[in-house]
């Protein structure tokens, strides 16, 4: 997405003292304004880009979430959130067409004015910025290792080449930033990332395939017992702690900020609903497989980041090689997811900071200035944030639910174009109730766990 959305003109205009700048852009203006010759993205490219937006770091937290909920309720929760996600995306698509808006924030502006647009953009920025810091931290863990409770978990580069200055965390993150991220985040179109997105999805499938293979081998050798099918409740606190899993599942499906940018680049925008369904089906299948095989393989020893479970003996031949394959494939996967999430982050932070400027894709100086500033902040965050998972839950319980469910539902209930049916209103109220109630309980439970130690859900 590079053109100025038509419905956003009243909230984002060129400065009146700059007559040489375009005052508005037509709805059908494409990236050809840059002389790129771009004639629209393909359906397959859009599926891969959207799937990559969905499958990020959240996939690694799902096995732990399912283990807490129990295998049956956990897998049902994943499917339920997938259906809610499809409904919320459908709301965004329908209301964007009715209001002729080409951005999510534009749809919010049409419903709630400039304040609503700014709040949504702030939520997207908080969610995406937090996720990118998490990505960078996990990439650092994969490459150079991490220390937990005085025990050092080695990274693959450190294990392969030993400890040198160039295998340290800071050196590897700088190398990744300059030689991997910098080229990928310099693209001005989402469709330019279609091939890396396809590779990213393939790497996620590699992770699932390896985990499934390990489980099958261990089942044939009789080394795996029956996983816990239902949650293990020790006390009242452990019941409320179940709700802390909801933000993890919700975060795993947040892709709403990239829906309209992807649709805007399509050769045939009417295919977007089908693209969403295909992407959600693919990602839900990957999520269910990852959660099922992860829980079956590690049981109550499943860690918050299941990737951390792949640093020891898996109980099968070539265990060390498989550990490295899993970590490397997932590390590469995150590197390729990073630019997709960054694209939306840059777009929304620019909208907050420069609401009256021309689109950022038309201003090279602003484009690269914002890009460099954001990358510097993310790199600093990854270097100094000591723990990611509590922050991961808080972000999922606040910004993520707002972006994924509360705003689409509120826009539908506001119903400025008058297109919402009775069923839409019922689904919207259900989304808001579930989002607010579960998030409130999750945040409260997280705060409680900081100050009090309870037995929780244990083996």
TrEMBL record:
InterPro entries: AA_transpt_TM. It is a multi-pass membrane protein. It holds the Pfam family Aa_trans. It is found in: Membrane. Residues 1-26 are annotated as: Disordered. Keywords: Amino-acid transport, Membrane, Transmembrane, Transmembrane helix, Transport. The chain crosses the membrane at residues 46-66, 72-93, 119-139, 170-187, 199-219, 239-259, 280-299, 328-347, 367-385, 391-414, 426-451. GO terms for molecular function: L-amino acid transmembrane transporter activity. GO terms for cellular component: organelle membrane. Residues 41-443 form the Amino acid transporter transmembrane domain. This is Amino acid transporter transmembrane domain-containing protein.
């Amino acid at each position: 997405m590079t053109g100025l959305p038509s419905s956003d003109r009243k909230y984002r205009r060129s400065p009146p003292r700059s007559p040489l700048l375009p005052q508005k852009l037509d709805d059908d203006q494409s990236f050809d304004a840059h002389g790129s010759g771009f004639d629209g993205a393909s359906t397959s490219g859009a599926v891969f880009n959207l799937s990559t937006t969905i499958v990020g770091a959240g996939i690694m937290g799902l096995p732990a979430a399912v283990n807490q909920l129990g295998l049956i309720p956990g897998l049902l929760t994943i499917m339920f959130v997938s259906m809610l996600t499809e409904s919320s995306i459908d709301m965004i698509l329908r209301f964007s067409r009715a209001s002729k808006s080409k951005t999510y924030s534009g749809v919010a502006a049409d419903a709630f004015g400039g304040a609503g647009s700014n709040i949504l953009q702030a939520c997207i920025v908080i969610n995406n910025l937090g996720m990118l810091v998490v990505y960078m931290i996990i990439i650092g863990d994969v490459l150079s290792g991490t220390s937990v409770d005085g025990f050092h978990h080695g990274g693959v580069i450190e294990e392969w080449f030993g400890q040198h200055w160039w295998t340290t965390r800071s050196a590897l993150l700088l190398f990744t930033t300059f030689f991997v991220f910098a080229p990928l985040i310099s693209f001005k179109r989402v469709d330019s990332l279609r091939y890396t997105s396809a590779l990213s999805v393939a790497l996620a499938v590699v992770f699932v395939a390896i985990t499934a293979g390990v489980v099958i081998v261990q089942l044939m050798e009789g080394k795996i017992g029956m996983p816990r099918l239902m949650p293990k409740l020790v006390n009242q606190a452990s019941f409320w702690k179940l709700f802390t899993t909801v933000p993890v599942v919700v975060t795993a499906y947040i892709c709403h900020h990239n829906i309209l940018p992807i649709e805007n680049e399509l050769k045939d925008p009417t295919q977007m609903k089908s693209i969403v369904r295909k992407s959600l089906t693919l990602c839900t299948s990957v999520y269910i497989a990852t959660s099922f095989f992860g829980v079956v393989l590690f049981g109550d020893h499943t860690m918050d980041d299941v990737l951390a479970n792949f640093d020891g003996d898996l109980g099968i031949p070539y265990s060390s090689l498989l550990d490295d394959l899993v970590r490397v494939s997932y590390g590469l996967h995150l590197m390729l997811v990073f630019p997709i999430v960054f694209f939306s982050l840059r777009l929304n932070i620019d909208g907050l900071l420069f609401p009256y400027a021309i689109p950022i894709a038309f201003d090279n100086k602003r484009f690269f200035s914002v890009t460099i500033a954001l990358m510097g902040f993310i790199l600093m965050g990854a270097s100094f944030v000591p723990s990611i998972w509590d922050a991961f839950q808080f972000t999922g319980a606040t910004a993520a639910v707002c972006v994924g469910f509360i705003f689409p539902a509120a826009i539908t209930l506001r119903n400025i174009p008058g297109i919402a049916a009775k069923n839409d209103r019922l689904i919207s109220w259900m989304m808001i109730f579930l989002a607010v109630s579960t998030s409130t309980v999750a945040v409260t439970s997280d705060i409680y766990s900081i100050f009090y130690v309870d037995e929780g859900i244990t083996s």
